[in-house]
Design goal:
The chain is α/β, with parallel strands linked by helices. Helix content is 50%, strand content 14%.
């Protein structure tokens, strides 16, 4: 049965499994303010719902998500003060970490593009299933930005995380992501949702108290190693990066403002 839709997010229930679908397919489900708010609110509600035992997160259309919407707030980005960046980025951080903090297991079913903030959100999920052909990665340094939730080194280890984040690699294949432990399974295109649902249903068939306490114990293992402290410090650095700007960011914003996002992305990728 389906619940009422918002403009940016749909929620469907299949027995004890809830399915959250990003619903901005015309812009590859880019995360804007309303989507961030709707998802954070929905995750809180589903976390408190005793009938929900597992949550699958997916995207409508051609992509899981292209990440945070670079057009949203573009006109005022250069005018934001540090306090403005803190407010925006703390909300973005809470949105990503809702999948980690949720007491119910979260499964990401990704396809098409899983870039930037969407890549971080997939890392925050407990399990990720990727369709063959999915493109993943973190291009932020290419245009003077940074990671909101620095989860990658806890998933891959330092060497791979540094290579991906410091080069701004956003052409990771699903197969490479599988080898690095970023995703759990790679399926043929179009079969990722069926696999994610099968995992969710297997989780939902287990004892819910044992599952949720086991997730808590697993998360606390990483948090005892300093995950939450490291993420908080990394967020502070990202707030400074965004607030400080810099020549790359200024040029990217100028091209985006004058010629559009497509031209700015071409300049960023060296294809202009």
């Amino acid at each position: 049965m389906s619940e009422p839709e918002t403009e940016t997010l749909t929620i469907e229930r299949r027995g004890p499994v809830a399915i959250l679908s990003f619903n901005r397919p015309r812009v590859l489900n880019a995360f804007d303010g309303p989507l961030v708010e709707a998802t954070t609110r929905a995750m809180a509600e589903l976390s408190a719902d005793e009938k929900v035992l597992a949550i699958v997160v997916r995207g409508e259309g051609r992509a899981f998500s292209a990440g945070f919407d670079l057009k949203a707030g573009a006109a005022t980005a250069g005018q934001r003060m540090l306090a403005d960046w803190r407010r925006v980025l703390e909300a973005d951080f809470a949105f990503i970490m809702a999948c980690w903090d949720c007491p119910k297991p979260t499964i990401a079913a990704i396809h098409g593009f899983c870039i930037g903030g969407a890549f971080e959100l997939s890392l925050a999920c407990d399990i990720t299933v990727a369709a063959a052909g999915t493109r993943l990665g973190a291009p932020e340094v290419k245009f003077g930005s940074g990671a909101v939730a620095m989860l990658l080194p806890f998933v891959t280890g330092a060497k791979a995380a540094k290579e991906i984040l410091l080069t701004g690699d956003d052409h990771l294949s699903a197969e490479r992501a599988l080898a690095l432990g970023i995703v759990n399974h790679v399926t043929p295109a179009g079969e990722e949702m069926a696999k994610a649902l099968a995992i969710a249903e297997s989780i939902a068939a287990a004892d819910p108290v044992a599952v949720q306490l086991s997730k808590r114990a697993l998360n606390r293992s990483y948090e005892a190693m300093g995950l939450k402290t490291a993420l908080a410090q990394a967020l502070e650095i990202d707030i400074f990066i965004e607030g400080a700007g810099g020549p790359k960011r200024a040029e990217f914003d100028r091209i985006r403002r004058e010629q559009g996002l497509k031209a700015a992305l071409a300049w960023r990728d060296g294809t202009a």
